[in-house]
Amino acid sequence: GLACAGWLRGNQRLEEAAIVLDVLAESTLACGVLSRALIAQANLAVVQHLSGDFCAALRTLQKIVDTHGFTCINRTVFDEAPGLAVLMDRARDQQQLVLPDIYLAVFSNVFSPTAIPAPPREATVPLSLTSKELEILGLLREGLPNQAISERTGIALSTTKWHLKNIFAKLGVSNRTAAIVQLGQTQPAQPSAANR
Question: E strands within 28-120?
Fold first, then answer.
């Protein structure tokens, strides 16, 4: 569900991403899987913010704080919900969210001192990706799990995981959701002759 929402977000289909994330958040909460519910809620808040609905994003952010507390909004949440720190910075800057001093100290490298949101980056695919990595990246963007990628490419599952690890390193991300979000609608560049 998160990968699907990430793909929708990356393709500017924010309304659909919000629907997926809302269903995912509610179902994981109902099942008692609070850590995954928190990730879904955090992504929902970010999508609402990106859609221009700051009020809805604030309501979702407040629900996260009320349900989980600040101690659960940790590095993993920031990694799996890209843009959450920007939203929290904006809420803090507009005095809609008070972050405890200890929290700000622990995550000093996450929050900006002046809470100015960074301009959106143009997503690019590094030219250093090999043709096999580009093929795997294309299948990843389609939302295929590792096993299906292995079957489609005819390589072992361990080799697929190795390629994904290299792709994430070259993109500067830590997981498939972040890779999909970073790529957005950008089409992969063709590998150079040296990388083929």
Answer: none
Quote the distance between the C-alpha of residue 63 and its chain's center. Answer: 20
Q: Encode pLDDT of 20-41 as tens digits.
A: 999 999 999 899 988 899 999 9
Burial environment of residue 108 by CB neighbours within 10 A (0 to 12, 13 to 18, 19 or more): exposed
pTM, full prediction: 0.58
- CB–CB of 47/5 below 8 Å? yes
Measure Cα distances from 149 to 29, 31, 196 in Å: 30, 29, 19
Alpha-carbon gap, residue 76 to 20, rounded angstroms: 20
